Amino acid sequence: MGLQDRANGSPLWPWSSTPRPRPRVTLDGYPIGSTEKLRFPDTHRIGDVSNAVFAVCCQSARIEILCDPGRLPISGQARFVMARLELSFLGQIRWPGTAEIGTRVDRVGRSSVSMAQGMFLKEHHVAAGQSTVALIDLTTRRPPCWPPDTARAVLPIAASQSENGAVHALWHRHNGRGA
User: Fold this and answer.
1) Degrees (nearest 5) of the Cα angle 167, 115, 76?
2) 178 lies in some domain
3) Does residue 110 sit within a domain?
4) Distances in whole angstroms, Cα of residue 102 to Cα of each of 3, 64, 134
5) What is the CA radius of gyration of the chain?
6) Rounded to an integer, what distance in angstroms lies between the CA atom of residue 170 and that of residue 93?
7) How confident is the chain (179 residues) per 10-residue block, as mean pLDDT?
8) Strands of 112-121's sheet in order across
9) What is the pTM (predicted TM-score) of this model?
10) What confidence score (pLDDT) does residue 178 get?
11) Of 25, 52, 63, 102, which has the most beta carbons under 10 Å away?
12) For residue 146, is it within any domain?
């Protein structure tokens, strides 16, 4: 129950006592899927998987995309670095088992990309992540603009072009149609 007014017992914030329904999120909402085996050392003494392991599983899934030159080519002088990470813990995970992580690109900037991730255990949505990674040039330590090959490679894992203005502009810029 939420905080109550002492005079009449009514909730001070009526919405605080009403649980908000969450939309059903499934692994199908992500174009890239990864699997992580949960290990006994990943657990706390009471048997659930540590919150830090949620972040590690999401990181592994992002790295599979960002560091695979066959999937996302970048020059030898550029690297992706983490700029922002947000995790929402939605459920408990217990060992043993495997976690499924879905990843998609939600926004493409001039030299960065925002990725959404969902973590699932036996089809239960147990975590949601948002991250922003930036492309930096190793020599200058400055963010370069997206190389055309990298920009084209991002599009298949991005949210649909009609839902994402930045991706839409990127698509047109790298297909000779202007921004």
Assistant:
1) 80
2) no
3) yes
4) 37, 12, 20
5) 20
6) 38
7) 54 56 83 94 88 94 90 86 95 92 91 94 94 94 87 77 44 47
8) 32-38, 97-108, 112-121, 124-137, 78-89
9) 0.76
10) 46
11) 102
12) yes
**Helices and strands (DSSP H and E) totals, the chain:** 3, 5
CA dihedral 55, 61, 66, 72 (to 10 degrees): -160
Q: What is the C-alpha separation between 5 and 169, in angstroms, rounded?
A: 51
The reply to whether 13 falls in a domain is no
Please name the helix (run of DSSP H) or strand (run of DSSP E) that holds residue 149, with its range, or none. Answer: helix 148-154
What is the helix (H) or strand (E) element at residue 56, kind and residue range?
A: helix 51-66
**For residue 20, what is the DSSP state?**
P
pLDDT at 131: 97
Q: Domain total for the chain?
A: 1
DSSP state of 49: B
**Is the torsion defined by CA of 84, 131, 39, 47 positive or negative?**
positive
User: Is 175 strand, coil or helix?
Assistant: coil
Domain range enclosing 118: 25-173
Distance between CA atoms of residues 27 and 25, nearest Å: 7
Whole-number Å distance between alpha carbons of 3 and 150: 51
Per this entry, what is the length of the chain? 179
